[in-house]
Amino acid sequence: MEILDGKKISNQIKEEITVEVAQMKERGEKVPHLAAVLVGNDGASLTYVGSKVRSCKKIGFESTLIHLPEETTEEDLLKQVNQLNNDPAIDGYIIQLPLPKHIDEEKVLMAVDPNKDVDGFHPTNFGKMALDMETFISATPFGIMELLKRYKVDTEGKHTVVIGRSHIVGRPISILMSQKGNPGNSTVTLAHSRTKNLKELTLQADIVISALGVPKFLKADMVKQGVTIIDVGITRVPDDTKEKGYYITGDVDYEEVSKKASHITPVPGGVGPMTIAMLLKNTLLARERHS
Ligand code: GUN
Phi and psi for 152 in degrees, rounded to 5? Predict the structure, then answer.
């Protein structure tokens, strides 16, 4: 069994980007600048955004955190988006999700300039991704593909079962895994909350990608021997015995499933760190495309 070590691979990617940024600086070029917009004080979002901004600093990017109060109106947020679209200093930016309920998420994401949409959430970029065109691929599916590539996991002709049809992970990874290429060329089943006989499907899977958000949902009796497991779930489970008051777990019962797997991503330290590395990669691409 081989652990797909997202922490290690993401550090490699960040080192590669650091070298490129240093070269840009040496040539007297502008370095990539990422902005992140956070509305409200959701604990997990604060942690993620903080981590994204810290990573920028470490690798030599410029970064700007725009932290707006929970009561920010949709109109004010749209004004902020417009400002970022028109600010030549900003190469790419993200609107951290989820947004407060009174704001129409779709409307805000549609307002982001596709050329600065390093999250790859705009329909233009999602469409380009589905058509195999050069674009910004969303960080989480991009990270999964990179992890499979760097560990040389064979995906060709394999049956991949994706659990979850979210716009951010399940839907795009189902498209990418079926694309021509390596990784890719996989036969994909996209399972979701209305799927019947999920266990019948996962038992046939050579690769299971779970993006469900239900702690320890996938058990050993649901997968076959030699399966590759990609666990995208990151759930905070309340636990008073922990200093933070919670522990982090994935969708997969790692303890038992890892005994049957050929490859598996741990949580934490699997897909999560890859997501940040790929966001940085997209920001570097944005800078290169703007110059
Ligand atoms: N919320 C959860 N995942 C993501 C992500 O990849 N990008 C943004 N902007 N928000 C998120």
Answer: 50, 40
Residue 274 Cα, ligand 1 centroid: separation in angstroms?
A: 13
Q: Is the CB of 97 under 6 A from ligand 1?
A: yes
Range 28-113 has CATH code 3.40.1160.10: no
Separation of CA 249 from chain center: 17
Tokens of 272: 């999560």
Residues of the chain with CATH 3.40.50.10860: 28-113
pLDDT in tens, the chain (291 residues): 999 999 999 999 999 999 999 999 999 999 999 999 999 999 999 999 999 999 999 999 999 999 999 999 999 999 999 999 999 999 999 999 999 999 999 999 999 999 999 999 999 999 999 999 999 999 999 999 999 999 999 999 999 999 999 999 999 999 999 999 999 999 999 999 999 999 999 999 999 999 999 999 999 999 999 999 999 999 999 999 999 999 999 999 999 999 999 999 999 999 999 999 999 999 999 999 987
Distance 194 CA to ligand 1 centre (A): 24
| Atom of ligand 1 minimally distant from the CA of 138 | 6
Q: Which atom of ligand 1 is nearest to the CA of 119?
A: 7
The architecture that CATH gives domain 139-272 is: 3-Layer(aba) Sandwich (3.40)
Specify the domain boundaries for CATH 3.40.50.720 within the chain: 139-272
> What is the DSSP-derived secondary structure letter of residue 130?
H
Report the alpha-carbon distance of residue 36 to residue 26 in Å, rounded. Answer: 26
- ∠ CA(23), CA(11), CA(46), 5° rounding? 105
Decide whether any atom of ligand 1 lies within 6 Å of the 251 Cβ: no
This prediction's pTM: 0.97
Check if 139 has its Cβ closer than 6 Å to any atom of ligand 1: yes
In ligand 1, the atom with minimum distance to the C-alpha of 36 is: 9
Task: Evaluate whether 61 touches 73 at the Cβ level (below 8 Å).
Answer: no
Query: Cα(204) to centroid of ligand 1, in Å?
Result: 31
